[in-house]
Write a structure and sequence with these properties.
The structure holds 2 protein chains of 2 kinds. Chain A is α/β, with parallel strands linked by helices. Chain A has 22 helices and 24 strands. Among the domains of chain A are: 169 residues, FAD/NAD(P)-binding domain (3-Layer(bba) Sandwich); 146 residues, FAD/NAD(P)-binding domain. In chain A, the strands form 7 sheets. A 5-stranded parallel β-sheet of chain A has the order 3-2-1-4-16, with helices on one face. Chain A has a 5-stranded parallel β-sheet with strand order 6-14-7-8-9. In chain A, strands 10, 11, 12 and 13 form a 4-stranded antiparallel β-sheet that branches. In chain A, strand 1, helix 9 and strand 2 form a beta-alpha-beta unit. Chain A is globular. By secondary structure, chain B is α/β, with parallel strands linked by helices. In chain B, the strands form 3 sheets. An 8-stranded mixed β-sheet of chain B has the order 2-1-3-4-8-7-13-9, sandwiched between helices. In chain B, strands 10-12-11 form a 3-stranded antiparallel β-sheet. Chain B contains 12 helices and 13 strands. Chain B has one domain: Rossmann fold (3-Layer(aba) Sandwich), CATH 3.40.50. At the A-B interface, helix 20 and helix 22 of A face helix 1 and helix 8 of B.
């Protein structure tokens, strides 16, 4: 293998699995250490810079960081990264004086943001402090988009949404709430230097089955119904409810139903339990509230009597896999089951909707009739119109919308300064030794052996009575500390200086995970089999040194390294050092521009 | 040394042996030796050897004296029997333990000070009595605990860290062991575990007095230019006579070697030693030739390593003493005082 180029920022970034997996590249271990140190406000600000909504995301994030977490490969479960973020948000002091100042003297550029959801708010957050004049449009009376309308209050209290959207709307924006944009053509004539479309994926998918029209009074589109509950327009539902769909919206629908009078609430899904789109913890929460999830049932017909819904007929199916491993759902031939109900909530997907973008204004549309958007720059065919969030590439989740917002803000900033938006800025990277003394490091290398802590929940009896009562209580400071101590500090890198190595084997002998091997160089495939312990995880790199004195190389499998520093403590010559790798993505502003 | 205990977490795909243990299960407490000490590598090699031999930890008794090397039994085999004796007296204690209970596997761990100076006589007598044990000397050529004075195994002409030249002749532990009748003699190097681990395994399986002189550079006091026991010096002057593979269960030989380059030696307990010769004319069953060869290479400034001498049919102290099959510590009063009938019978037989 070729020696590893540790000067390339991607190499050590990949070792920090959580940060690499986070679309917004939040420096996770950095803020977890701050939480352990009780520096909640500092931890909050590290988050705020990267993901803008720490309090909201600490309750609702889809947490791509957690499946990636190294701790999950070392023992059973990853660090509860998402809920630690909430600890920072819950325990911080007033941070308003840490927010960026807004220049009185504007830079003369006007930007229109369509939709006041996470993507648009991120663009506003990045651009307003630079002196841009921001005009924010949304059809709803309050900012927040789907964070406010679709996420039930028992998961995300309104006060948290108000606070974190407020940090941005109070940045001197020109708020045009309650004002829906009906024509992009019209907006283009209003003299904006750039327009950002962050209007989300606001249309819930229909399910056209026999009886749909006749029983329409008791069949509701999930996201519209949730929004109506959120704004207080809906406050009850029938006793028997069927939720169709297996995603997170379905989980929100069924749990909300339980709080609005639903006593027998069921979720019925076409696919198997494992293939459901909902996050495992959301399925778990629904089941905990006595909501059965029935699988392998395809809805066939809505039954009704005298214009009133009586139930739903399903067809029982099984999964059959063809030679290529492609799955199809084939009827089992058993009699069709019928489930009685008073109301049905449809949560079978949502889609983008752009009836307000005219076809004759120069916008390109793809084969799905969606505006063509560049995956890196978020620019459309109209050079000053940018997209982000669900509006760009279909429904994802908040953290992706935030990541899109940051990138789109970079593009808008470069565009407004006459620069090429395709020329993307490199991240800001620092690598600093953590050595404090012979065996002392500026981080806690004695990691905890504790298993993942569960987040305490409010008693079901209480939480099921009110849709506004938050179910999760969050970790308190003590539990938060204990959970934070499970973090392996993967950003504190093992950095090897080959010229100092005397090949004494001390690091090999002490490494608790058998990560380090001194061996003859080979191509990667062979090398992976000839290490101290097999390196079967191909997604994790092997750190390879140039040839050493004995013509062997040092090969370290990054996969399960505990970053415990024992290799560096046992090294007699300092060939191993523990160095903190801090990567901050470059955001809009002078740093992202080339001149 | 380190301030934190070694984390209990281990690699999820770590192999297990026949007893279901991983090599981590053969570890002891965390080493307090200097960072980079050769002795820690030897500890790791002992751990690996016991893991590969599927030894139940409670079947081993590890004995040591005083010194850096004699501290190491604390750092491996945390679930085995152990005895940290007086300086230089490990061989007597080990002999006594062995006489009392011959069923345990005895591992004597000592250093060049403990065995070549204060305990030289003890070392000599335990070897000549043929105590069934593996005696490892972790040989760094200096008194590390007292800041690096020359030890008795330090070569004449070797330079100390502070510039002094050693004027005394060195004791060659390997030659002495061979002369005194050890039936398994090897020399190895802490920096080469691929050589050391099989040598330890074979030595532990050997019936009789097995001795390994393991050169173990002292990174604090004897790893500089001018030292003859530094990592660099040993690597440059290492002449390996053979490579040993140790097979416990007569596993099939997969590798194909040119004729005359491989020798199979079956030991007393059925274990098979496969020797790949790297020095074609070296015969490890010929003690006289071996001793001559060692002298010749030493004169040329080379350090000969590998399995230097083995008598696969080695005998031990209990064979000479003709003790009963049952370990002495298990004999009951009925065994020891058989009664007047037995006495009568004995007397009759002597008439």
């Amino acid at each position: 293998m070729e020696p590893t180029n540790i000067a390339a920022p991607e190499y050590f970034h990949k070792v920090v699995d959580c940060q690499w997996a986070c679309p917004a590249h939040t420096p996770v271990p950095e803020y977890i250490r701050l939480i352990a140190a009780g520096r909640y406000s500092d931890a909050y600000m590290v988050n705020w810079r990267s993901n803008v909504f720490p309090g909201i995301l600490g309750r609702t994030c889809d947490r791509p960081c957690e499946p990636a977490c190294r701790r999950g490969r070392v023992e059973k479960e990853p660090v509860a990264i998402c809920r630690l973020k909430r600890v920072a948000a819950d325990n911080k002091d007033d941070i308003r004086d840490r927010l960026p100042g807004i220049p009185v003297q504007k830079n003369g550029k006007r930007i229109a943001l369509i939709g006041a959801g996470p993507a648009s708010l991120t663009v506003a957050r990045d651009l307003a402090p630079l002196g841009y004049e921001i005009v924010l449009f949304d059809g709803d009376p309050k900012a927040g988009g789907m964070m406010r309308t679709q996420i039930p209050r028992f998961r995300l209290p309104e006060a948290v949404t108000d606070e974190e959207t407020g940090y941005i709307t109070e940045m001197g924006l020109d708020l045009r709430l309650g004002q829906r944009i009906d024509s992009l053509k019209q907006l283009l004539t209003e003299g904006y230097d750039a327009i950002f479309v962050g209007s989300g994926a606001p249309r819930g998918r229909e399910l056209e089955l026999p009886g749909r029209q006749e029983a329409a009074a008791n069949i509701h589109i999930g996201i519209d119904w949730l929004s109506s509950v959120s704004f207080g327009h809906t406050d009850k539902i029938g006793k028997r409810v069927i939720v169709l769909g297996g995603g997170n919206t379905a989980m929100d629908c069924c749990r909300t139903s339980r709080r609005l009078g639903g006593e027998e609430v069921k979720v019925i899904v076409r696919s198997g339990f494992e293939e459901m789109k909902a996050s495992p913890w959301e399925k778990e929460d629904a089941q905990h509230e006595d909501i059965p999830i029935l699988n392998m049932l395809v809805p066939k017909e809505f039954r009704h009597k005298n214009g009133k819904l009586t139930g739903v007929v399903f067809e029982k199916v099984q999964a059959v896999y063809d030679a290529k491993g492609k799955r199809s759902l084939v009827p089992t031939g058993e009699p069709d089951p019928f489930f009685e109900c008073d109301d049905v909530l449809l949560a079978v997907g949502q889609e983008n909707a752009f009836p307000w973008i005219e076809r004759d204004i120069g916008m390109d549309f793809d084969k799905w009739d969606m505006p063509a958007v560049d995956a890196v720059t978020f620019q459309s065919a109209i050079p000053n119109v940018f997209f982000g969030g669900d509006a760009a590439f279909g429904p994802k989740n908040i953290i992706w919308a935030v990541a899109h917002g940051h990138e789109a803000a970079v593009s808008i900033d470069k565009f407004c300064h006459g620069e090429d938006v395709k020329d993307r800025p490199a991240p800001d990277v620092a690598l600093i030794s953590q050595k404090m003394g012979i065996h002392e490091w500026s981080y806690d290398n004695d990691i905890s052996n504790d298993q993942r802590y569960r987040v305490p929940q409010r008693d079901k009896e209480v939480s099921l009575k009110d849709v506004r009562v938050e179910v999760e209580l969050g970790f308190d400071q003590k539990l938060g500390y204990a959970e934070a101590e499970r973090c392996l500090n993967c950003d504190v890198q093992t950095v090897f200086t080959p010229s100092l190595c005397i090949e004494c084997d001390a690091c090999v002998d002490i490494c608790p995970m058998d990560c380090i091997t001194f061996t003859a160089n080979e191509p990667e495939e062979e090398l992976r089999h000839h290490l101290q312990a097999p390196a079967n995880n191909r997604t994790q790199d092997i750190y390879v040194s140039p040839e050493l004195k004995t013509s062997r190389i040092m090969a370290k499998d990054e996969d399960v390294c505990l970053h415990c520093s024992l290799c560096a403590e046992r090294c007699p010559t300092g060939a191993w050092d523990m160095q903190k790798f801090l990567l901050d993505t470059t955001q809009a502003g002078p740093a992202c521009r080339s001149r | 040394m380190t301030y934190i205990p070694k984390p209990k977490l281990h690699h999820p795909q770590l192999p297990t042996n026949k007893l279901g243990f991983t090599h981590r299960d053969y570890e002891g407490s965390i080493s307090t030796l200097c960072a980079g000490c050769g002795h820690d590598s030897i500890s790791a090699a002992v751990i690996q050897a016991c893991f590969e031999l599927d030894i139940q930890p409670h079947r081993i008794a590890k004995m040591s004296g005083i010194g850096c090397s004699s501290k190491t039994p604390d750092y491996f085999l945390g679930n085995s029997h152990g005895f940290n004796s007086v300086h230089g007296r490990m061989p007597s204690v080990l002999t006594g333990a062995n006489v009392a209970n011959k069923d345990l596997i005895y591992l004597g761990v000592s250093g060049d000070g403990d065995s070549a100076s204060i305990g030289f006589g003890q070392f000599a007598h335990s070897i000549r009595r043929g105590v069934n044990m593996l005696y490892i000397v972790e040989n760094n050529g200096v008194y590390g605990l007292t800041k690096g004075q020359f030890s008795a195994t330090s070569d004449k002409g070797s330079k100390s860290k502070y510039g002094a030249i050693n004027g005394d002749s060195a004791i060659d532990m390997v030659s002495i062991a061979m002369q005194l009748g050890a039936t398994y003699v090897a020399r190895s190097f802490s920096g080469d575990k691929s050589q050391l681990v099989p040598l330890i395994k074979a030595g532990m399986s050997h019936h009789g007095a097995a001795f390994i002189d393991c050169i173990s550079p002292c990174v604090a006091f004897n790893n500089h230019v001018g030292s003859t026991k530094s990592l660099d010096y040993v690597r440059e002057h290492n002449e390996t006579v053979n490579k040993l593979d140790m097979m416990v269960d007569h596993e099939a030989i997969v590798a194909d070697y040119a004729p005359g380059t491989v020798e199979m030696v079956t030991q007393h307990d059925g274990s098979v030693l496969r020797l790949r010769k790297t020095s074609p004319h070296y015969d490890p069953s010929d003690r006289i030739q071996a001793m001559n060869y060692l002298q010749e290479r030493a004169a040329a400034g080379e350090i000969v390593t590998g399995l230097l001498y083995v008598d696969p049919e080695g005998t031990d102290l209990h064979d000479y003493l003709n003790t009963v099959d049952k370990p002495l510590n298990e004999l009951q009063t009925e065994d020891l005082v058989p009664g007047s009938e037995a006495l009568k019978k004995l007397n009759e037989s002597l008439r």
